[in-house]
Amino acid sequence: MGTVNLADTHPSDLPELLERRNKTAVRLHDHSFLELSYILRGEALHTLDGQTTRLRAGDYVFIDRGSHHGYRALSDSYDYFDCLFLPQVLDPALAGTVHLSAVLTHYLLHLDRRLLADPAHLVFHDENGEVLTLLRQLQRELSARPAGCREMCRCLLVEIFLLSLRSIADTDAPADTPAARLCSYAKTHFAEDISLTALAAAMHYSLPHISRSFKAEVGMTFTQYVTALRVSQACRLLADTALPIAAVAEAVGYHDMKCFAAQIKARTGFPPAAFRRRHRGNAAASFVAI
Questions:
Q1: What homologous superfamily does CATH list for 178-279?
Q2: Could you state, in order of their start, the residue ranges of all structural domains in the chain?
Q3: Apex CA 16: angle with CA 127 and CA 8, to 5°?
Q4: Which residue, 193, 259, 263, is CA-closest to 235?
Q5: 108 falls in which pLDDT band (50, 70, 90)?
Q6: What's the pTM value of the predicted model, to 2 decimals?
Q7: CATH superfamily label, 2-172
Q8: How far apart are CA 141 and CA 156, in angstroms?
């Protein structure tokens, strides 16, 4: 059992798409990236973290960073697509993010994290071929590398995620929970001084109860969620505008420059000025906010 890494020469802000033909088995391994694996032809047994699932043509799975998985053909052989990517492909602000759940609770893809709480039991089926069409388009983008390739790849991956999770959310949508209402409020008020104590009182819940339920549903504390929103928007402003760094900090709700710089570095690995130099013109802000 070994660890697979992306090639050192592969850009960290682009996905890598591999098409494998006539495979009979793939030994158990883990990897340092996220993966979407799509069965093109045939049938295979997929083992993920000790649990085995039967996959057929049109089935696909998401595999988390660090998960151990492998395949064994049930037919003579099988063909599959592997889409490998780091979280920063979706947004530079996600650099350093470890797990898929953090990606799903990001500004771009804020969906109920419970949808992928147990990936070993979650198999998607591409009923009408939409996901395969998007993967083929992704393949063409990566082959030709036209202008705007990074942004197009990002949009295609977001669409794949949304189509996949919508198929579950449509039939298994969570209720309008207090946590969902808090998330909605935070998305439009994150630049303000938000008090969870005041919000809990306005919703007629105790602070301990609302804190526990929010973390259980979203996977992080309310403070961490607001911080993630602020840092994500700050990264967009740093990359796509000429606003002074102090003005960016103010625009996303930080009045202490040391605190602002520390949060940016903690989430991206770079202080604000270095992040701006690295990502200027990379259209980090040109995403659809979900």
A1: Homeodomain-like (1.10.10.60)
A2: 2-172, 178-279
A3: 160
A4: 263
A5: low
A6: 0.65
A7: Regulatory protein AraC (2.60.120.280)
A8: 10
Element spanning 158, H or E: helix 149-172
Residue with tokens 């959310």: 169
Q: Are 240 and 286 in contact (CB under 8 A)?
A: yes
Cα separation values, 272 from 3, 219, 235, 247, 278, Å? 32, 26, 8, 12, 10
- Lookup: tokens for 225: 């969620």
What pLDDT does residue 29 have?
A: 87
Asked if pLDDT for residue 121 goes beyond 60, the answer is: no
Q: What is the chain's mean pLDDT, rounded?
A: 83
Nearest-10 Cα torsion for 64, 66, 69, 70: 110
Q: How far apart are CA 198 and CA 98, in angstroms?
A: 32
CB 94 within 8 Å of CB 104: no
Q: Are strands 25-31 and 2-4 parallel, antiparallel or unpaired?
A: parallel
Q: Is 287 a residue whose pLDDT tops 50?
A: no
259 or 228: which leads in pLDDT: 259
Q: What is the mean pLDDT of residues 128-146?
A: 95
Eight-state DSSP code of residue 231: H
Write the CB contacts of 19 (distance below 8 Å, at least 6 apart in sequence).
40, 79, 80, 81, 82, 139
Confidence of residue 290 (pLDDT cuts 50, 70, 90): very low
Question: What average pLDDT does the segment 178-189 reach?
Answer: 88
Give the H or E element holding residue 137: helix 130-144
Residues 77-86 have a mean pLDDT of: 92
Place of tokens 């050192």: 8
DSSP lists the bridge partners of residue 56 as 43
